[in-house]
Amino acid sequence: LRDTVDKEMLFVLGKIMYHRRMYSDALKTLVDANSLGLSSAEIYLYLGLTTMKLQDYQKARNYAQKALYIDENLCQAWSLLGNLRMEQNDWQEALRSLNRARDCDPESPDISGKIGIVLLNMDKPDKAAAELEKAVDMMDDPGLFLYYLGAAYLEISEKDKADSILSEFIRTWKGDESYLERAVKLKEKAGKR
After folding, report:
1. Residue 84: CB partners within 8 Å, gap ≥ 6?
2. Which class for 84: exposed (0-12), middle (13-18), buried (19 or more C-beta within 10 A)?
3. Per-residue confidence in pLDDT tens, the chain, 193 aa
4. To 10 degrees, what angle do helices 57-70 and 75-87 make?
5. Which of 6, 57, 81, 164 is deepest in the core (most CB within 10 A)?
């Protein structure tokens, strides 16, 4: 009984550490819980999420696959695999994984947005724009999805829409400044300053 309580407590602690962005500590704690015999889809998911944050993509993929072996309908594990494939520019596999994630969570704006980004990278801007529009419409703060929607509109020669969306992105973005610089360049391509 004590081992069961210990491994469950370690798992909860590891999840808390993950959500507080203490990734190295989270990984150690989750590995400890796993070594005590905790073997569930959820612990493998968190091990995968944590190792991805630590940029150990091979381990993250292995953990995600273990989670899916236990529960093939675990949406977050499919999403994790999609994210990993996006990091590796493996657009076809990213799309396959994200579509599986959408099968179990069809209303997720995050999944739709990521599918849109993947489609844009696969030179399918019409389909990308449709996915990104869906994502942006469902979100209060669409973040980078606005940038990619503007880029998709530009690719399909919807310059007025691109200009409007990129202006909104520039006005609201609070993240990495390199995206602001890219958005300004895309806006210039749209023919408006």
Report:
1. 52, 57, 60, 61, 64
2. buried
3. 455 668 899 999 999 999 999 999 999 999 999 998 888 999 999 999 999 999 999 999 999 999 999 999 999 999 999 999 999 999 999 999 999 999 999 999 999 999 999 999 999 999 999 999 999 999 999 999 999 999 999 999 999 999 999 999 999 999 889 999 999 999 898 875 4
4. 160
5. 81
* Torsion over CA: 124, 130, 135, 141 (sign): positive
pTM attached to this predicted model? 0.88
CB 139 within 8 A of CB 117: no
Q: What tokens appear for 5 in the block?
A: 């309580």
Alpha-carbon span 42 to 80, nearest angstrom: 12
Rg from Cα positions in the chain: 19
Query: In terms of residues, how long is the chain?
Result: 193
